[in-house]
Design a protein that fits this description.
heterodimer, A: 686 residues, alpha+beta, 3 domains, six-stranded antiparallel sheet, 20 helices, 12% strand, B: 147 residues, OB fold (Dihydrolipoamide Acetyltransferase, E2P), five-stranded mixed beta barrel, 4 helices
Chain lengths: 686, 147
Amino acid sequence: MPDFGYATLLLTFLVAIYTSAAAIVGHKTRSERLLESARFGVYGTFGLLSVACLTLVYLFVVGDYSVKYVQHYSDRSMPLFYKVTALWGGQDGSLLFWVWVMSVWSAIAVYQNRDRNKELMPYTIVTMMWVTLFFMTLLIFAANPFEVYLAGAPTDGRGLNPLLQNPYMVTHPPTLYLGYIGWTIPFCFAMGALAHGKLDYGWIASMRRWCLVAWVCLSVGLTLGGLWAYEELGWGGYWAWDPVENAAFMPWLTGTAFIHSVQVQERRKIFKAWNLSLIIITFVLTLLGTMMTRSGIVESVHAFAQSDIGDYFLAFLVVTLVVGFGLILLRSKQLAPESALESIVSREFAFLVNNWILLAAAFFVTFATVFPSIYKFVNKGQEINVGPAFFNLWMIPIGLVLLFLTGVGPLLSWKKSTAATLRQQFLLPAIVGLLGAGFAHVATGWVYGSSHWVATLTIAICIFVTTSITQEFARGTRYRMKNSGEGALDAFITLMTRAKRRYGGYVVHFALVLMFFGFAGNAFKLEAEETVPEGKSAKIGRYEVRLDRLVFEDDGQKNMVTAHVTVLDKAGKELGTMAPAKWAYRKPEDQVTTEVDKRMTLAEDLYLVLGTYDAERKAAVLQLKVNPLVNFVWLGCGFLMFGFGVAVWPERRAVRAPIYSKRTAQAAAGVASFALAMLSAGLALF
Amino acid sequence: MLGRKGIQIAVSFLLIGGSLTYLLSSSLSEEMEYFHPADAVMVKRAELTNQRIRMGGFVLKDSILQKTGTLEYQFEVKPVPQMLKYPEVANQTMTVRYAGVVPDTFKDDAEVIVSGKLGEDGVFHATDLLAKCPSKYEAEEKTKGTY
């Protein structure tokens, strides 16, 4: 069986070579048959890689421990569910999973465009195949997941890290991968457009919805990663600027910039070279991220082992940059703007500023993440570490400016805003925002006992942006009511369905407001550590936590110590019970996991960790944390998905016969990814 | 040709770029922590005392002590044999004290990175502790071929 899997990989390699050759020759000779053959080549790589993934899954399920990868990441006692997901538990399998997801996306994109974008498709397919070939090279020569033990194969596996045996780890990596790799397809189209020289808005138009799908998957994937860290790691936070998190965040930043700046190209036919550069940078950042997290170059808590795949990645990265930007230079004539920026008080200029800042943020995060590696290289092996404090120092102001811009941008008009429109648009949000600042300062001081100026500022900007969005919705609704005579609710719904992209975008902006509101809560965290004997209690914030019993159990797979506690409020009224625990697994050898328990309310979470215990004296050392507003972050993610759903919902016109199938395919892709995102979020929450 | 506008743009770019670079590097040097392998810390003991550093090594087997009913730990860190630079201290260890919740991966033979200060008492007082499972040494096994 392992040989069969390896043979599939080799065959995929050959098919990818054939497909790129067929696409080039077919394009040069204008042979429809060869081009069709190339399309089927793309479907073929998808089929073959699916077989390879299924083979690996099969090996996991039957427990063939002669395969190193299977032996490293599973064992007999693991539930079937986690045996299947162990596919992406380590380096080799996750690279196979990467290229498989890419083949899924490629097949969908090629199918959607089988009758469209005829000029672009040959080179787009070539680019897709070259990316595939790169990953196949890695899998065949440097990271073969089907490698077997030459002699003395073990009879059982080592087991998957219990931290990864968690529902989030089932939903978080695939969602993140879908988003991450989703950006490869627009990149391939951009390269197709550059190679062919057809550089109008066409390729962007067909990729617009695609980019939104990639973006939302990446956003949801990032949030799920945060949720996993929050629930599983027990340090009470959800984001620590770990290189692995940064790796996914970097392309998110440039991808966000791209989604905004393509609107400027659509409207004003400028920023053409800029958009191409952004998509190339986004793709390069996904490669850099994969390289950082999979090669062990960067020191990280989740990094996999040191390996030699870094060199392959570096080479591919350089080639991508040189070819991409070389083509942009070559095509600079066709990329000349067709109009000019007229005023700095315009929406396009706001988009430009948004782009600069997002790009600066991406540059900063990339720099700070790779800086330790560069420093080590330059200073003969001297290692350094750059902590989260450095990231926060820079990213908090950057994030706040971006949040502020989400409130400003929609209020400006295209081309030029006049003084009168400025007054009309900004008067209300500015006043409410300023009042909000005072209110936030007083309210946080009253609720949390002290106020914090960063939190005050964040909440004030949140209020400003919310007012500006509400004003947009209210004006649109009122306008419709006047023109069509509809009732308020009808008018509101028609408004949303008539300009889905616009109002969907506003909902996404509001989602970010909610998330930032949640981030502001970090300023008011409470934390305490206390040794609590049975019957006694510890106090934190407005809670009193009483240890009722310390219970010792064993279920065969693990030893469990649970602290059963009762939570009371200040008046002594019982609020409920909680049970933080520590589990010691038999396999892998003595692996301990901390089982956090939290009491969730919209206002705050009470977060309990059983730090350690004293069996003789029947005492638990509890770590108590109160995390205000944290649930707004997850709530924001829900709104984000809803806004995305509104934005990509297919137009009603789509049901007309001739374009029916394409539109439905597109819609199906959108709906499917949305459903997947919802499903993963749902799974994550329960 | 650089017109007046061109010069204005160039100057403002230089000013903004320069001040950002300055801010970036100065804030970076404040937040940067040097990492030293345990053997280097033992050799350069005098030079590193009272500095904030990060130290990496393995937890010596059976050396973890915990004050009963508290989160106060003391353990010995030995150099990583594969990365040894100073063979003369290969068999020595460094005492580390840490108070707080330890990560789940912290146990005998785990690879740890501790950040904190090397005190004049010769003990490393850690404020932060990271630990990696001992089972993560994959690349080496790969080159060895069989397990």
